[in-house]
C-alpha cells in the first residue's frame, strides 16, 4: 500500500506535534524604511528608533509608536523583525554622500568652477547630501531659477580650463524643453565645450528624485500636464502648500541612500568633472 502522506518529523517522541521553524527576515529600521503593522493596518516610514520602540509616519503625516516585537511587521508583504540599525564602525565616519568624512575640515578656498542647479530645492538637496564633499573640494553650487535662457548664462560665465561649469537639469529626457536648452548651451560655447558638462535626471522635479518610501508614500502621484507639479503633489498627498511639502521632502533626506540612482550618478559626475584638472 502506498503512503499518501509522510508524517516523519511532524511529531516529537511524546506524540506532540513538533513546531516547524519559520525564518523571519530581520530588517534594520533605517529612517525612511516603509513597513506595516499587521494588527492595525497602519503603514508608514520609520522616523526614529528608541529603546524597544519604533515611530512610523504615514503618508498623511500621522505618527504612531509600535514595540519592536519579533515578526511584528510586514516588509514588502512578508513578516519581518525590525532591529536597531548598527552603529558606524569606530574610527571611520562616512558623510551623507557615502564618502569618508574629513574631521576638523577647513573648507577649501572656492574654485572658479561652479555647479549650477535649477532651483533652491535642488541646491538644498545637493547641499544636504554632498555638502561635505563640496567643501572639501571648494565647489560652489548656485541655483539658476530655471533654464529658460541657459545658453546666455553659459556664455556669460565664460568657461575655460580652470573655470569648468557643471549643470544639473531636471527632466532631462528626449523631447523636453530641458534637453533642447542643454543642446543650445553646448552650441553657445562651441570653442569651450570640453569645459562644460550638462547632465541631469529623468524626474519632472527634484522632489521626485527622492525615493517615495523616504517620505512615507508608496509612489509619487501622477500630476496632469498643465498643473504645477509641486502644487499637484501637495494637493494629492494632502501636504498643504508647496512650502510645507518642501520641508517634508528635504527634511526626510539623510543620505544618498534616500535618493534614486540617476540623481546620485548625475551629481557625482558633475563633482568629478568640475574638480578635474583642465586641459
From TrEMBL:
InterPro entries, A to Z: DUF3097_C, DUF3097_N
Start and end residues of each stretch annotated as Disordered: 1-23
* Domain of life (superkingdom): Bacteria
Q: Domain (DUF3097): give its ranges.
A: 26-85, 113-275
User: Looking at the Swiss-Prot or TrEMBL record, what is one Pfam family this protein matches?
Assistant: DUF3097_N
Question: Any idea what this protein is called?
Answer: DUF3097 family protein
Organism name:
Pseudonocardia alni
Amino acid at each position: 500500500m502506498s503512503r499518501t502522506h509522510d508524517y516523519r518529523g511532524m511529531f516529537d517522541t511524546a506524540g506532540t506535534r513538533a513546531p516547524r521553524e519559520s525564518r523571519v527576515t530581520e530588517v534594520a529600521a533605517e529612517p525612511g524604511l516603509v513597513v506595516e503593522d499587521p494588527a492595525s493596518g497602519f503603514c508608514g516610514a520609520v522616523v526614529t528608533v528608541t529603546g524597544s520602540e519604533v515611530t512610523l509616519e504615514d503618508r498623511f503625516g500621522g505618527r504612531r509608536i509600535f514595540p519592536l516585537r519579533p515578526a511584528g511587521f510586514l516588509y514588502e508583504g512578508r513578516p519581518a523583525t525590525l532591529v536597531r540599525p548598527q552603529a558606524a564602525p569606530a574610527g571611520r565616519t562616512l558623510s551623507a554622500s557615502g564618502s569618508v568624512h574629513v574631521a576638523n575640515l577647513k573648507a577649501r578656498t572656492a574654485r572658479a568652477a561652479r555647479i549650477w542647479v535649477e532651483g533652491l530645492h535642488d541646491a538644498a538637496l545637493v547641499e544636504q547630501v554632498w555638502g561635505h564633499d563640496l567643501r572639501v573640494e571648494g565647489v560652489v553650487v548656485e541655483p539658476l531659477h530655471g533654464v529658460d535662457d541657459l545658453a546666455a548664462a553659459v556664455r556669460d560665465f565664460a568657461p575655460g580650463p580652470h573655470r569648468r561649469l557643471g549643470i544639473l537639469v531636471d527632466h532631462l529626457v528626449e523631447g523636453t524643453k530641458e534637453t533642447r536648452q542643454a543642446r543650445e548651451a553646448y552650441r553657445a560655447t562651441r570653442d569651450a565645450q570640453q569645459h562644460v558638462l550638462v547632465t541631469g535626471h529623468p524626474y519632472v522635479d527634484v522632489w521626485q528624485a527622492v525615493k517615495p518610501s523616504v517620505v512615507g508614500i508608496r509612489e509619487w502621484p501622477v500630476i496632469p500636464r498643465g498643473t504645477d507639479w509641486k502644487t499637484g503633489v501637495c494637493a494629492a498627498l494632502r501636504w498643504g502648500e508647496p512650502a510645507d511639502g518642501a520641508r517634508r521632502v528635504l527634511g526626510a533626506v539623510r543620505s544618498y541612500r534616500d535618493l534614486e540612482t540617476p540623481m546620485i550618478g548625475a551629481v557625482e559626475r558633475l563633482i568629478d568633472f568640475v574638480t578635474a584638472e583642465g586641459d
